[in-house]
Amino acid sequence: MKKAVLILAAAAVTGTGFSQVSIDPEAGLNIASIRTKLGNNDASNSDSKTGFSVGAGVTLPIYKGLYVKPGISYQMLGGTTEILGVESATTMHYLRVPVNLGYSLKLSDKAGAIFAEAGPYIGMGLAGKTKVTGLSNITIEKDITFGSKVDETKAFDWGFNFGLGYETPWGVYIKGGYGLGLGNMSNMNNTTMTHNNWNIGVGYRIKI
After folding, report:
1. How far apart are CA 51 and CA 31, in angstroms?
2. pLDDT in tens, 157-202
3. Strand 172-181 and strand 191-204: pairing?
4. pTM to 2 decimal places
5. Are 207 and 20 in contact, with CB atoms under 8 Å apart?
6. What DSSP designation does 41 have?
7. Helix residue ranges, H only, the chain
8. 89 and 130 Cβ atoms separated by less than 8 Å
9. How many CA atoms lie within 13 A of 192 on its CB side?
10. What is the DSSP secondary structure assignment for residue 48, as one 8-state letter?
11. For residues 51 and 89, is the Cβ–Cβ distance under 8 A?
């Protein structure tokens, strides 16, 4: 009976991508923006700001190519604006904890696998700074304070991740994705400000 169970388990993962637990460190590049909605006006996006990300996840196979991947990462987010010659650049640093559901499809032993992931995340603001440059090239920098006051920024964030990737037969993978922020970081009435970011990253699966 024990042998039959092992044979069935082996057959279940044949032809799929991930068949064992792995720790997946990865690093990447963010192209981030801040989406703002004032009252009943249409929402607008800031210009993009480039940042980086670094973190790690744990791939936990469920059945065939289906898996769950919790993780933790550092994310540099923000955005830039220019109004009447005055430039403003906001940089924010977050710790994020995503829990993604994924599926991997093995192409062949030599071709590797393709995979897709999606799921929610929660985040916590660590630090931030706004830099404003005026017409006379005078720059003023101000640290962002997290809290519940009107002139402060909410630290808690949440949203959803979506990603597609390709894994080589050697465990190296490349992934592109999008983070849709839904947590309002503004404490002002009738104002909603959320993070959005595209990401491309490289990682390596350490099977354990």
Report:
1. 7
2. 999 999 999 999 999 999 999 999 999 999 999 899 999 999 999 9
3. antiparallel
4. 0.83
5. yes
6. S
7. 2-13
8. yes
9. 14
10. P
11. no
Q: Scan for tokens 């304070």, then name that residue.
A: 145
Q: How far apart are CA 79 and CA 34, in angstroms?
A: 6
Nearest in space to 65 (alpha carbons), one of 106, 24, 100: 106
- Taking the C-alpha atoms of residue 13 and residue 26, their distance in angstroms, rounded to an integer, is 25
Give the gyration radius of the chain's Cα atoms.
21
Query: Tell me, what amino acid is at 74?
Result: Y
Domain residue ranges of the chain, discontinuous segments joined by + = 2-207
**What does each C-alpha distance from 47 to 53, 69, 144, 175 come to in angstroms?**
19, 31, 19, 23
Element housing 58 (H / E): strand 49-63
Determine the Cα–Cα distance for residues 40 and 85; give it in Å rounded to an integer.
Answer: 27
CATH (residue range 2-207): 2.40.160.20
φ/ψ bin of 207: left (φ > 0), alpha (ψ from -120 to 50), beta (otherwise): beta
